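[scheduler] slot 2 assigned
[scheduler] job type: sequence-to-structure, two independent chains
[scheduler] chain ordering preserved from manifest
[runner] begin chain α
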Amino acid sequence: MVRRSQSSNPRSVVVLTSGTDWGTRAAGQRRSSGAESPIPRRQPAKIKALQQTIGVVRVAINRKRWHEARYALSRARALTNALPTNMAVQEREQLSALRKKYAARNTPAAKNAKQTKPTPAGRAGVKKPVVKKSTANSTAQKPKPAPVRDLGDRFINRAALGYAPADEA
């Protein structure tokens, strides 16, 4: 049983529920998006807020904080909608690039890009010696062709295929 009371008055009616109404109560509570956050009134402040939001989106995407990136992208969209179309053109271009990056977060191409990134080699100042392979050996070694399978003596039953009369075969 859950005790539900909205007032601090001890004589007010207390409703005891068994938790069956959680679905209807939670329907009024939605996950907040960045669009609900307050938007500054003046245009320079809107542009500054948009630039800050773009920075937040960039950091969130680079650190793979997808929920934070989604929130910041929706806030950035609300800020760009509050600005005239001819203002903040560079910011809009940056946003579209970040939206593409966010949209491609779970695609195979993004996973392949993660795998091909070079790993940092220890300290920044220390260089490891690179062993060069001779190009003559690499061109001489070619992959062997697949062996041809011997299928033996096979005969096609032409009569079964309808090319010759059945008594001839």
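[runner] end chain α
[runner] begin chain β
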Amino acid sequence: MTRLRALLPTTLSLSAALALPTALADSVNCAGNLNSRTVRGDLQVRPGATCTVLNSRIEGDVELGRGARLVLRNSTVTGDVEGKEYAQASILGTLIQGDLSLERGQGGQLRNNRVRGDVEFEDNRGRMAFAANAVGGDLECAGNRWTYSFYNNSVSGRQQGQCVNWK
């Protein structure tokens, strides 16, 4: 019995240490600048906020809230980038290992990016520049009411909807 009591604190400490990596995930609510940082979790741009991310690594998803503005430059996102009812998305020179989905937003610019998954634009309005990107999956566009420039892109998958024959 004495031996069991002596082992109990060690066992509890070991259990806490094993759970620690999950507890240390540092998901970030971004409103401002993030430069040369690694985020071990998701990056959330709250409704109405502006977030500028430079030379960083996001080990999770990037989510833009309603009316949010995002500048993501020379960075890596290991998950997806998703914006719904966003104000502006400027993604430049970035690797997105998941999917990119922008819906019901105001537009922006996507230049010199690599997206390993699918890219989807749905029900956007405003102005969008999509240039010199490499898409590993499908490119799908539907219901967009925008002025766009689309050139020098490569798409490995299918091009569907409004972006059929975009190059």
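[runner] end chain β
[qc] chain β: Confidence is low (pLDDT under 50) at residues 7-24.
[scheduler] slot 2 released
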